[in-house]
Design goal:
- This protein is mainly α.
- It contains ten helices and no strands.
- It has helices at 6-27, 34-41, 45-51, 55-79, 83-99, 103-114, 118-144, 153-170, 178-192, 196-200.
- Helix 1 crosses helix 2 (34-41), helix 4 (55-79) runs parallel beside helix 7 (118-144) and helix 8 (153-170) packs antiparallel against helix 9 (178-192).
- The longest helix has 27 residues, at 118-144.
- It is elongated and about 60 Å long.
Length: 204
């Protein structure tokens, strides 16, 4: 009986999703054919459909994996003894995502998918709620340790989330500078958590 190598299976699946992300970011979901994904991933259509029977399955796999990775980050951050270290762990991953050259295209994909795919909209909403909850927990603990937050923890968490959402939306604009946006976000978030400009550079 033929057995499946789990590591090889996972690598192939990941390779397909990387190829799909690049195609979706450049051409959108509707503008991307499964043949294009196969060419980029250097696989045949049979292999693609073995892993993902439909293009919608690819979309859900791509973003579902990303949401799962962030859920692990949130759990890891909350488990930190030092809440500020956990908070910075989350910021580090978000700043990395913002610097990803595929971010503008994938953000456009997500926004379109939210409006026409209830299952995807639910996945996206759950990720947003999980992020807000984790940020709130860490900010509450930081406040207990003496941080002078500009707003109550839940409101400060909401503002941080709004700032990142707006930054990802802006990432597709002409002239967008991820490094500059990150530096400015650090300053604003530093103010929100009571660090001011002097401590903003230490965030993330």
């Amino acid at each position: 009986m033929r057995t499946v190598d789990p590591e090889k299976h996972a690598r192939k699946r990941a390779d397909i999703l990387v190829a799909a992300a690049e195609e979706f970011a450049a051409n959108g979901v509707d503008g991307t054919s499964t043949a294009a994904i196969c060419r980029r991933a250097s696989i045949g259509s049979g292999t693609l459909f073995h892993y993902f029977p439909t293009k919608l399955d690819i979309v859900h796999g791509l973003f579902g994996d990303a949401f799962a990775r962030m859920a692990a980050v949130y759990s890891e951050a909350e488990a930190e003894d030092d809440p500020e270290a956990g908070f910075n762990c989350i910021l580090h991953h978000l700043f990395d995502d913002l610097a990803n050259p595929l971010a503008p295209g994938l953000m456009a994909v997500a926004l379109l998918q939210i409006g026409r795919d209830e299952a995807f909209a639910r996945m996206f909403g759950e990720d947003e709620e999980r992020a807000r909850r984790s940020l709130t927990i860490l900010l509450e603990r930081m406040a207990d340790h003496g941080a002078q937050l500009a707003f109550p923890p839940e409101r400060a968490a909401a503002w941080i989330q709004h700032l990142f959402d707006a930054s990802f939306l802006a990432s597709g604009n002409a002239g967008f500078d991820a490094a500059l946006q990150t530096a400015e976000l650090r300053t604003v978030i530093g103010w929100l958590i009571g660090r001011g400009k002097a401590g903003a550079a230490q965030l993330g």
